[in-house]
Amino acid sequence: MGKLFFARSFHYLLFLFVTLFFNVTYVLAQGETEAEYMEDLSHMRTIVLLLIAFAFVIMFGLIYVVKSHRELKHQYTIIDKQKNEIATKNNELAFINDSLEEMNVEKNNVLSVVAHDLKTPLGNIQGLIELVYLNRDNLTEDQTKYLDLIKKVVVDGIGMVNNMLDVHKIEAELKEVTFVKTNVFQVVDKVVKLHEPFADTRKVDVKVNHSNADLEINTDAQYLRQILSNLVSNAIKYTKEGSKVDVIIEEKDNTVEVLIGDEGSGISDDQMKRLFAGYKVSGSDETDGKASSGFGLLIARRLIDKLQGKITVTNKPDKGGAIFTVELLK
Predict the structure, then answer these.
(1) What is the secondary structure of 77-143 as a DSSP string?
(2) Segments making up each domain of the chain, as ranges
(3) How many C-beta atoms lie closer than 10 Å to residue 202's C-beta?
(4) Are the C-beta atoms of residues 244 and 202 closer than 8 Å to each other?
(5) What pairs with residue 258 in β-bridges?
(6) pLDDT single digits (tens) 72-103
(7) How far apart are CA 267 and CA 314, in angstroms?
(8) Separation between Cα atoms, residue 290 and residue 309, nearest integer Å
(9) Which of 182, 227, 283, 323 has its CA at a distance of 20 to 30 angstroms from the CA of residue 219?
């Protein structure tokens, strides 16, 4: 359609210029000498050629404009199509995201119900075990040994249930974060003293190193205590029996770091990738094959995010063991 239009336009202009040329030539030829006629004819040829050249310029300019318009229109069509595709994908992703959120809420609710349902019978079993302990003098050595094992299993089960409930509370945001001035050393000291009985059973020496007992940061003391408690407990659990755990408080320019190092077997690259994922079971020679659900580290990661801090882990380069670093804003 465009080509036909330009061809007709060009023919029309050419016809117009040729007609004009001959008409002017005829007019000039009337009453002029041959010299004057030839001079005027030369001028007319120049004018006509210039007009023809101008017509070509206009024609090619119009061709370029129309072609550009077509390409632009084509690009707009492609863009509109892509926009529609993106909008469709966004709607699909929004639907999937809503479904995942609903599934996550349902999962948390199921975990909460299961945890509550397990907590009561486990608590009852623990109570019965304590009653039996009152008459442990009448038990045989094997009976006492099995009773101790049962108690350990029940205590671990209750701990896992409590961790499941903690995860549910964190994800459901049932507790608001309260930032207040908090003495870091006092929090660390309370956590270490809380785990002294556990450390004594494994003959592990937990040492706290610091340079400023009055160091304060703006944080949620309860969340910080829970984070450090999980990490110190893990360090005692996974360090070699008869070794030590170091808890170091370091002050930086704008942050405070709490480093918790053990003398265990370290963490493999595969374990490092899923260390904070939770919902896993692992065992270790240093813990007598004791299973770990990974809830503690999952909780620590979720809580540190709420405190706007970071938690990292590295293996000791020169000897066995791992170092967990908790970085907090002042």
Answers:
(1) HHHHHHHHHHHHHHHHHHHHHHHHHHHHHHHHHHHHHHHHHHHHHHHHHHHHHHHHHTTGGGS-HHH
(2) 1-124, 180-329
(3) 17
(4) no
(5) 249, 326
(6) 888 888 998 899 889 889 888 888 888 887 77
(7) 8
(8) 30
(9) 323
Q: How far apart are CA 201 and CA 118, in angstroms?
A: 27
CATH architecture of 180-329: 2-Layer Sandwich (3.30)
Residues of the chain with pLDDT under 70: 1-41, 44, 108, 111-112, 116, 168, 170-175, 277-294
Q: Which residue has the tokens 């050419």?
A: 14
pTM of the entire predicted model: 0.58
Can you tell me the distance from the alpha carbon of 8 to that of 15, in angstroms, rounded to the nearest whole number?
Answer: 10
List residues bridging with 180 in a β-sheet.
219
Residues 292, 281 contacting (CB under 8 angstroms): yes
Residues 81 and 77: their CA atoms lie apart, in Å, by 6
Q: Which residues contact 115 (CB under 8 A, 6 or more apart)?
A: 161, 162, 164, 165, 168
Q: Is residue 161 within 8 Å of 115, Cβ to Cβ? A: yes
Query: What is the β-pairing status of strands 205-209 and 244-251?
Result: parallel
CA gap 21, 48 in Å, rounded: 7
* pLDDT tens track for 106-129: 776 776 677 767 777 888 888 888
HSE toward the beta carbon, residue 249, CA cutoff 13 A: 21
